[in-house]
Amino acid sequence: MAQAAGRRAACDYLRQLLLKPGSYRQIWEKHVIRARHGSINQLAVAEVLARHVSGTGGGAAPAVLPRQLKDTVSRALSGRLLSKQVLALFIEAFEFTDDEADRLWRLWNGSATISVLSGSRAVPVQAEQGLRQVLGPRRHQTVTMHDHLTVGADGRMARSRTLQVIEATEAGVDRIPYLYDTSSLTVEVGQGCVGLSGELRQIGSDLFATDILLARSLGLGETITMEYSTTFRYPGDPDDPHERQYRRAVLARLENFDMRVEFHPDRLPVELWWATWDGVDGDVLSQEPASLDSQHAAQRFMRSLQRTCVGFYWTW
Q1: CA distance 172 to 163
Q2: Is the pLDDT confidence value at 213 over 60?
Q3: H or E stretch at 184
């Protein structure tokens, strides 16, 4: 069971490596006649593998035809079948880094220490369409994100601190979108940021967007570390289920995500779970018990997230 889950996770991660902007995607995009945003051209990927098998690289036509490998590519990227030999072929043909190759092999072997999660949706369809219209094309990707929440002695969420490393996927990135709901009270920026744009855009009945202004404009491929903190106002009962959960919805893709929730020693939860939701408005899809450490905190690390909603919830 663990091995089968690991191989599906390896397929998910392989697909994400080929889809995200960068050198791996550029390798197969060279063989695409008409690109489609947000999807992998399987015949182009098969072309890369065929050229590697034939030893022709980017030169002469391969002896092994791409269409002969198209089913192999389809099975691998859909998660149906990824054999040891096929994974090795992908790693060699696309020249994945040692770290990426090691991660893929550990996933393939069923490692429980790496989590890759790809869901069906993070927010309602209408909200997602609204987000894309308001925010426009995505101009950056997140390299790492640490999301730490503090719960006060009154049982209410007090403050979250986010440390995020972003990489520009085009030149001239001087801000990133910041989404918040009506429960947010203040946002305080730290390193890598100079403030908020002040322009508020309403996306839904209780969802708004603004921009965090970066300390400098980024060129293509440049990175910056950002830090910002959010305080909350929850006038209702801390026993309300909505005030006993901390979640993050991921629309596109988020890699190297760490979430930590720390409770005041005078108000510790009776039960605590790490869970996945069917979008921000949906039910819990899966959950597992979580325990507190000596600092009264619970933590989870996810190697990769896509179109899903994850987080902690608890009871008093």
Answers
A1: 22
A2: yes
A3: strand 184-189
* Phi and psi torsions of 115, nearest 5°: -120, 125
Strand 271-277 relative to strand 201-202: parallel, antiparallel, unpaired? Answer: unpaired
Per domain, the residue ranges of the chain are 2-114, 125-315
Helix (H, G, I), strand (E, B) or coil at 101: helix
- Retrieve residue 166's tokens: 């972003």
What is the number of helices (H) and of strands (E) in the chain? 7, 13
- Over residues 130-188, the pLDDT tens digits come to 556 656 777 888 889 999 999 988 888 888 899 999 999 889 999 988 876 655 556 77
Close Cβ partners of 121 (under 8 Å, ≥ 6 residues apart) = 128, 278, 279, 282, 307, 308
Q: How big is the chain, counted in residues?
A: 316
Element (DSSP H or E) covering residue 256:
strand 245-263
**In 3D, which of 147, 163, 168 has the Cα closest to residue 216?**
168
Sequence-distant (≥ 6) Cβ neighbours of residue 138 within 8 angstroms: 169, 252
In the chain, % of residues over pLDDT 90: 35
Give the integer Cα–Cα distance in Å for 105 and 103: 5
- pLDDT tens digits for range 21-37: 778 889 999 998 776 76
Helix (H, G, I), strand (E, B) or coil at 196: strand
From 2.40.50, 1.20.1250, 1.10.287, 2.60.40, which CATH number describes the 125-315 domain?
2.60.40
Q: What is the pLDDT of residues 12-24, one digit of tens each?
A: 888 878 887 778 8
Who's near 177: CB < 8 A, 6+ residues apart?
Answer: 135, 209, 210, 211, 212
Helix (H) or strand (E) holding 286: strand 284-289
